[in-house]
């Protein structure tokens, strides 16, 4: 590891960077005029708390804006160096980090501390904390995995698709088209209908619910971007990924 990387991953540097990110996001929250849709979203979702708030990867910077002050929350954060930085920022924003990676495509949540993270998320929900997690499979943008359905099935808590966007923002040229808001604009927070997950499911039902989460997240993101007069930069990522996978499969056959 280079000297620059070692410095960047040192605790004092990450603490400072996390604090600065949290302070910046606070500025974004205060200086954007947000609309919540539907207007009675919290009245509808409140009785279901604690819920599992689902988001697409890359939309994590501002998702906590949708959290009410009175709702304790924990968020699944990877164990990577970048994850440490994000965990520190979340701490300053009043969100507890649960470290571990999510679904690798089979709903197991086992790799890179996933099983431990699953137990921690179940414990958090049981204690009354809302849990925030990305629904898509790592490195496969906008393709929901079964992991979030597994968490809902085991906990008995519903999944709520959430999107938070701003009219002024920076969209990164990354695999997930990550986006972070800029100050002094308009914002939209869109919350989907709670998705209830029964405990006893067969493979067909799991796939149907996984697809429902995917559709719900697409819908809230499309609506949120429309409310700020923009188009979701990640809207075509799943189709592009599916096409690439098909080409690889064809080439391998």
CATH topology: Glycerol-3-phosphate (1)-acyltransferase
How big a fraction of the residues is strand? 15-25%
Shape: globular
Element order: H for helix, E for strand: HHEHEEHEHEHEEEEHH
Uncertain runs: 106-111
Q: What is the residue-averaged pLDDT?
A: 90
Secondary structure blueprint with pairings:
Elements: H1 3-8, H2 11-31, E1 33-37, H3 41-45, E2 52-55, E3 73-77, H4 81-92, E4 96-99, H5 114-126, E5 130-134, H6 147-155, E6 159-166, E7 169-171, E8 179-181, E9 186-191, H7 203-227, H8 237-252
Parallel strand pairs: 1-9, 2-5, 2-6, 3-4, 3-5
Antiparallel strand pairs: 6-9, 7-8
Pfam families: DUF374
Domain DUF374: 68-141
InterPro entries: DUF374
Report on the structure:
It comes from Saliniramus fredricksonii. Pfam families: DUF374. This is DUF374 domain-containing protein. The chain has 253 residues and is of the alpha/beta class. The protein has one domain: Glycerol-3-phosphate (1)-acyltransferase (3-Layer(aba) Sandwich). The strands form 2 sheets. The protein has a 7-stranded mixed sheet, sandwiched between helices. A two-stranded antiparallel sheet has the order 7-8. A hairpin with a 7-residue loop joins strand 7 and strand 8. It is globular. About 2% of the residues have low confidence.
